[in-house]
Amino acid sequence: MGKGSSLARRVAQVAENALVQRKHVTVVDVICGLRWSYQRDIDIWRQGRADSLERVTAVDAAKMADAVALLREWATARGLTATETAQVSGSRDRRPLRFTADGDEELERQFKIEWYSPELSEARRRQLTERRNKAPDLVVIVGSAPWSCGGCGATGPHHIMEDDRPHCLSCADLDHLVFLPAGDAALSRRAKKESVLSAVVVEFNRRRKRYERRGILVEDEALARAEEQCLADEEVRLRRRERDRVRREAGDVEFQAALAAEIRRLFPGCPDERAQAIAVHAGLRGSGRVGRTAAARVLDEQAVTLAVVASVRHLDTDYDHLLMAGVPRREARDRIRDRIDQVLTTWSA
Questions:
Q1: Whole-prediction pTM value?
Q2: What are the counts of helices (DSSP H) followed by strands (DSSP E) for the chain?
Q3: If we measure between CA atoms, which residue out of 111, 58, 104 comes closest to residue 84?
Q4: Do β-strands 199-205 and 138-142 pair in parallel, antiparallel, or remain unpaired?
Q5: How does DSSP classify residue 135?
Q6: What digits encode the pLDDT tens for the residues 123-164?
């Protein structure tokens, strides 16, 4: 079998996997799936640190074009919908991402086409397309190697790419932003929303061989507003938790009363205080006891009986003593079975 057939099979397999997982397929999915490039290399390209995807790919533009053509054949045969999307870098100049070193216009257009499953609704497809066409976050990089600013020659902890060179935050007009470490998703989301200008801060993890998010840069005033919103929300959450607690406690009291009444109905000879004690013990929230099961919550007769049997086993027999003496659990239960039956018979009268 020829090399072309082998590549076609590999492209189809990679594309099929992507389609199953995400309902759409991109050229980058295929290139990564073929192991021609890796996610860290794709990140470098999208950050604007490589002038083309070809620079961080193990094959040349011609080979990549072959894969794109095979992807188009496969997608057309599958009845997928073709959509051309914008590709913009996370660099300060927001330049269009280029796939090939030469930048042939027609070839670049083919690389930008993404294929969507016909199973996707029109609304979902439009949503995905809008998301893909949206300019990505500006990406600020924590320097892991020595670098110097392409504008002033200085260095520092962070830089952003512009005109194919790293630039310090001052030269990139980002030095007025403040750093918000990752960790509080609600605060980060609100601060970014409030900030007119923001950037994502990433750092390369050498052990995992990938860029990882470390936080965001946002305007100081935006962060202050976001903090106020989160504080207000915390007060709301505290009040809601208190209301839920009171409601749960009230529900527990009502359930325990109903459980005690059902115990007395099934076992009329059971003393009232004992029935109440069984109900409270078995129905304790978070206990995992039989009274907390779904069956017991609807007062299923078998579940209620099991709660009573458990109480008799521990309080009216030698079961616990037998366990402490090292008697196996099943043997201990066999020894006390007659005693349990005796108590239940008395209470059932």
A1: 0.55
A2: 13, 9
A3: 111
A4: parallel
A5: P
A6: 888 888 887 777 778 899 998 888 999 988 988 889 988 888
